[in-house]
Design brief:
Elements lengths: L7 H10 L13 H9 L6 H11 L34 H20 L18 H11 L4 H6 L3 H14 L3 E5 L1 E2 L2 E5 L7 E4 L6 E5 L4 H16 L4 E3 L13 H14 L2 H7 L6 H12 L3 H10 L5 H30 L4 H9 L1 H12 L5 H8 L3 H12 L1
Parallel strand pairs: 1-5
Antiparallel strand pairs: 2-3, 4-5, 4-6
Helix pairs in contact: 5-9, 7-8, 8-9, 11-12, 12-13, 14-15, 15-16, 16-17
């Protein structure tokens, strides 16, 4: 069979972009063969390259370029230490960003007179952290009543999302691209992003993360909206603030931490006569925050050492992740997993989903366009419309 003299560098680029390990590319190709093609030790056939193009979701001719194509990300990449854009975003991540931009554009055109309450004040990274945190707490209605009402972390996340939407933010929380279970978003690549706008500010939360980490990311992205700074973020709850070099990310993380556990109240609640474990337990119970957040706050405020913080927070994150995975597996085995009707409004954003159906009923948008906006097939959209009207 005819050999395809492709650029090995392009094979590596395409696989990285598709976010696939060598052993996950195809049942037809062993990992050793993939690596041999990528190193130039072996040359694939045209048929094999065609299959790779399909698996990687790139045009076939891409493999014959002299170098990887330059990609322009519409958002500032804040995930690196100095804010420099990464060379490659996975195809799943790129599509998630583009879908969010399409939804934001549609909402802006459909509701041009919307006036998001969250934008009633405008801040910058030069503003006082405490002042911005107080504004965010008030906007998201985080108070003692809310903390008492939310007995579970999932409840707290849902309520914060609801309150952010009530303030005019489109909130999308998804672990998938277009409701496709085979296209999962990688939390190692990003935890969230923000798209600022005068009419339709939008935040996206990668729900493959733990629920507690999603709470922190949501508040972090809300701060991005408040300072009018779009960007891709990956706020890691297991790392201290001192390790962040990007000024915007550092500011957003500081405000998010202050929102969840105000510094002055924390200092009054921390008793030096108690052990670290007892103090952390008190903070968790009083402020309804995760142990990870309490650890992070204690370290950033010099109440615990690095030797105590790093092992404890990484172990806590791993423990919480494992627990949520077990809970999810248990729910899936007993109920078959959450129904699409329950999760897709969360993935597309409740505010956005409701707006699309209102426009659909009013004849302002077609069934085909409505289905595309919500990442559904037309038949599925029609079934949901009937369930919604019942």
């Amino acid at each position: 069979m005819a050999l395809a003299y492709v650029n090995p560098e392009l094979l590596v680029w395409a696989r990285t972009k598709a976010n696939l390990a060598p052993d996950k590319v195809s049942r037809n190709f062993a990992a050793a063969r993939i690596l041999a093609w990528e190193s130039g030790a072996q040359i694939p056939t045209f048929a094999q390259v065609e299959e790779l193009a399909t698996k990687y979701k790139v045009p076939l001719l891409t493999f014959f370029l002299t170098e990887p194509p330059t990609e322009v990300t519409p958002l500032t990449d804040l995930r690196t230490l100095r804010g420099a854009a990464r060379k490659t975003l996975s195809s799943n991540f790129n599509e998630a960003i583009n879908d969010a931009i399409v939804r934001q554009d549609w909402y802006r055109e459909e509701f041009p007179n919307a006036k998001p309450r969250i934008l009633s004040k405008q801040f910058s990274i030069d503003d006082d952290v405490v002042s911005v945190a107080e504004y965010v707490r008030k906007t998201l209605r985080i108070n003692d009543d809310l903390l008492k009402e939310c007995t579970k972390w999932r409840d707290f996340l849902d309520k914060l999302s609801e309150n952010a939407e009530a303030a005019g933010v489109l909130v999308l929380r998804s672990s998938l691209v277009a409701n496709n279970p085979t296209r999962k978003l990688d939390v190692k690549e990003f935890r969230g992003f923000a798209l600022t706008d005068d009419v339709a500010p939008l935040i996206f939360i990668n729900s493959n993360d733990t629920t507690t980490a999603q709470v922190f990311t949501l508040i972090h992205e809300v701060v991005h909206i408040c300072i009018n700074q779009s960007g891709i973020s990956n706020p890691d709850p297991t790392k201290p603030l001192e390790g962040i070099r990007n000024k915007t990310e550092l500011f957003c993380n500081r405000v998010a931490a202050e929102v969840l556990v105000p510094r002055q109240k924390f200092m009054r609640s921390w008793w030096n006569s108690l052990s670290n474990a007892d103090n952390l337990k008190r903070i968790v119970q009083h402020y309804k925050v995760s142990n990870m957040v309490a650890l992070r706050r204690a370290y950033d405020l010099d109440k615990i050492s690095a030797d105590y913080f790093f092992p404890a927070v990484k172990a806590d994150y791993a423990r919480f992740k494992k627990k949520e995975q077990k809970d999810e597996e248990k729910e899936t085995s007993s109920k078959g997993g959450p129904e699409l009707w329950v999760v897709f409004p969360i993935r597309s954003g409740r505010k956005f989903t409701e707006s699309v159906f209102v426009s659909l009923q009013g004849g302002k948008v077609s069934h085909i366009d409505a289905a595309r906006l919500l990442g559904l097939s037309v038949p599925t959209l029609e079934v949901f419309a009937k369930r919604r009207a019942a």
